[in-house]
Amino acid sequence: MVTRHDLYPSRTTRHLDPIPRQDPVIHARNQHRWEGPLDETSLSRYERDGFLWFKGFFSQSRVSQFLNVLKELEKDAELMKSDQVILDPGSGGLRSVFAMHRISAAFDELTRDPRILGMVRQLLGSEVYIHQSRINYKFGFQGSGFDWHSDFETWHAEDGMPRMRAVSASLMLTDNNEFNGPLMLIPGSHQTFVPYKGKTPPANWKKSLKAQRVGVPGMEALAELANWGGIKAPKGPAGSLLLFECNTLHASNENMSPWPRSNLFFVYNSIENRLQEPFAASEPRPEYLGARHNIQPLDMHDEFPEIAGQGVPSL
Amino acid sequence: MVTRHDLYPSRTTRHLDPIPRQDPVIHARNQHRWEGPLDETSLSRYERDGFLWFKGFFSQSRVSQFLNVLKELEKDAELMKSDQVILDPGSGGLRSVFAMHRISAAFDELTRDPRILGMVRQLLGSEVYIHQSRINYKFGFQGSGFDWHSDFETWHAEDGMPRMRAVSASLMLTDNNEFNGPLMLIPGSHQTFVPYKGKTPPANWKKSLKAQRVGVPGMEALAELANWGGIKAPKGPAGSLLLFECNTLHASNENMSPWPRSNLFFVYNSIENRLQEPFAASEPRPEYLGARHNIQPLDMHDEFPEIAGQGVPSL
């Protein structure tokens, strides 16, 4: 039996100290670094903070269609009963629908938008595919929060994602303000892997999608990272876009305003970082939580296919 | 049997619509309005919003002593077991100690600080006494939030406070920032009384101090008020002071930062607005939650008693 070397051990019975990141933040190396839409200012900021915020990236009309998609999905009784749908533990309302890019053509095209896909390829330095996608909805006065966590910790332990070479995109479908439970991030936290002490329970994902208890960093490590990097909660109108590194610690508080908060969430993973066996769970999570079969590299979606690849016609 | 007329009925079995405020916001009338430290700009703002925020009102050194008082109180095993002390429902840590102005001389003197007492007398148009006081402590990562509510609704229903003629003061002992669960207020909400549908359970206060369920406004009324007035969460350093009208809706979210949040809270009631029998509860709450015996009008505390009342010596 060959034992895999694990760069990021977690879910252990003994306490392990935080581990410095073992991967680059920007995977396009040397002269390839600038082959894409992001300039050096943005690249350096992403390297430093672990996220980039694009206030008002798309127009509101470009994104409002997705709220209608959500309303349509709610009428699908079959889907509503499936594990792909997560209800709010507080209100019982619809909170998340997973694998949205396989349900909705509009969502699929969005994940292949040249602007977003161009940035993501530049950050990951390779072709990419969608590891996970979902639409989130947080009700006014009712939407529960989510404790601090690194997505990579779970994807590594439970999905078998070997390295830190994935980027999450979050596209706001509603305004993000101080009071409707916006995403909070700890700048710089992506540079540290915080192992979790405690084994992964069987089928942990059935609980963890509602309220994560296993895999979250300890309070001491969390306080140190937050005291070092501070906390940021980007605000902006519907259409704003957040790109964040897979190991950046993030959380959200309850929505105590009457204003709902909704966003699309989709994760790009490098095709050179495909899932293996889980590093710390008895079996992999379902395909809709971590793709291991549907891993075709994404091609860009051009809205004008008839002139795509033909260059700009001369004036 | 004489039935009291109740201007603000609540805790009823039938739904009642919101009731417009039946009391002035500033009780000093006509030319008496300007007899005090607040100028017309501040008075008008208080009338409009139902609160005033004084960023950095006291120096940090003036207020840091109170955190030491709290540490001393924690060592008092007898006190810790009493009903006057509220533990956090999440963490089990010390969250509030009531009737602080009767325990701590420093707190008593603070409630009689000429600057604060001067403003409060001007707003309430009479002599005043302390209806309730406490010190609050919200832990990093653990401090629970508090749902939207009007204090007056409870003080009227459960304490028998007849009119809206009370002002709450909240003095920050730590920095108040976006992430440590600061107080949120709905500007203008003090102009509307939102009755609660449902009877007051016996000894409701034993539960309501941990998490209020009875007396909170319905979601529809709340949404209307928040959509009208918006939501504000004043931020500032330790030493900042908030004065807010007894019927202003307020709430706080969980503290998801490592930074604790602590404040002193003390309520001034007009001596012309003394407690009667509860309007909607079987018996009054304890003295430390709503004073009905210790209601001596406050006199100003001068730090230089030897020259108090002597005027400023001539140059």
Automatic annotation (TrEMBL), chains A, B:
Enzyme Commission number(s): 1.14.11.55
Keyword Metal-binding included in the entry's annotation: yes
Top enzyme class: oxidoreductase
Annotated GO MF terms: 2-oxoglutarate-dependent dioxygenase activity; iron ion binding
Pfam families assigned: PhyH
InterPro entries referenced in this protein's UniProt entry, alphabetically: EctD (IPR012774), Phytyl_CoA_dOase-like (IPR008775)
Stretch list, region Disordered: 1-20
UniProtKB keywords: Dioxygenase, Iron, Metal-binding, Oxidoreductase
Catalyzed reactions: L-ectoine + 2-oxoglutarate + O2 = 5-hydroxyectoine + succinate + CO2
Signal peptide: none
Coiled coil: none
Top-rank lineage group of the source organism: Bacteria
Cofactors (names): Fe(2+)
Reported function: Involved in the biosynthesis of 5-hydroxyectoine, called compatible solute, which helps organisms to survive extreme osmotic stress by acting as a highly soluble organic osmolyte. Catalyzes the 2-oxoglutarate-dependent selective hydroxylation of L-ectoine to yield (4S,5S)-5-hydroxyectoine.
Entry similarity comment: Belongs to the PhyH family. EctD subfamily.
NCBIfam families: ectoine_ThpD (TIGR02408)
Oligomer and partners: Homodimer.
Designated name of the protein: Ectoine hydroxylase
Organism in which the protein naturally occurs: Pseudohongiella acticola
